[in-house]
Design brief:
Blueprint (H helix, E strand, L loop, with lengths): L2 E2 L5 E6 L4 H13 L9 E5 L6 H5 L3 E9 L2 E2 L1 H14 L7 E8 L4 H14 L2 E2 L4 E4 L5 H19 L3
Parallel strand pairs: 2-3, 2-4, 4-6, 6-7, 6-8
Antiparallel strand pairs: 1-3, 4-5
Length: 160
């Protein structure tokens, strides 16, 4: 079910949430964008299963959250790119973008894959990749919240 915040510029968070912990990450990122610090940015959080090409084209910035599965991005995230990549080519150039990876191991292959996809789409990575690796830590939610709020505040201020 989509979660939506206020209005004006649009931030799209695409978060794969197969577990309570990954759902907590998505909620932390979205909730951070509901406060005054995010300004008047409209924030929507969708599952990669629910994303259509139009959702991203209508956004001003994107953050993708994925898990690392068998040393690569989640199949749900890969499926989204398989469905939407060609429609996004040439329609989302210079899109301010970020991503986070919930990795049980190191997240390196997933990071490289996402960086390659972002480069192919000509998206601008405006924050360092956030890799949340190892055993679960409650601070992971704060890290994702900071990433999302930074993007929203940057959009609101006209930085991105």
């Amino acid at each position: 079910m989509p979660m939506v915040a206020s209005m004006s510029r649009r931030l799209l968070i695409i978060a794969h949430t197969p577990s309570p912990n990954t759902l907590a990450l998505a909620k932390a990122g979205h909730n951070a964008c509901l406060g005054e610090a995010a300004g008047s940015v409209e924030t929507t959080c969708l599952s990669p299963f629910d994303v259509t090409a139009t959702d991203l084209v209508a956004a001003d910035a994107v953050i993708i959250g994925t898990t690392e599965n068998i040393g690569y991005m989640a199949g749900a995230t890969k499926d989204m790119f398989d469905r939407c990549y060609n429609a996004w080519l040439g329609h989302s150039d210079a899109m301010p973008a970020g991503f986070y990876i919930r990795a049980g191991l190191e997240g390196t292959a997933t990071r490289r894959a996402l960086e390659g996809i972002y480069a192919g789409l000509k998206w601008r990575l405006v924050a360092p990749p956030l890799i949340l690796h190892g055993a679960w830590q409650d601070r992971f939610c704060e890290d994702v919240a900071d990433l999302c709020l930074g993007m929203a505040a940057g959009l609101d201020a006209g930085i991105f």
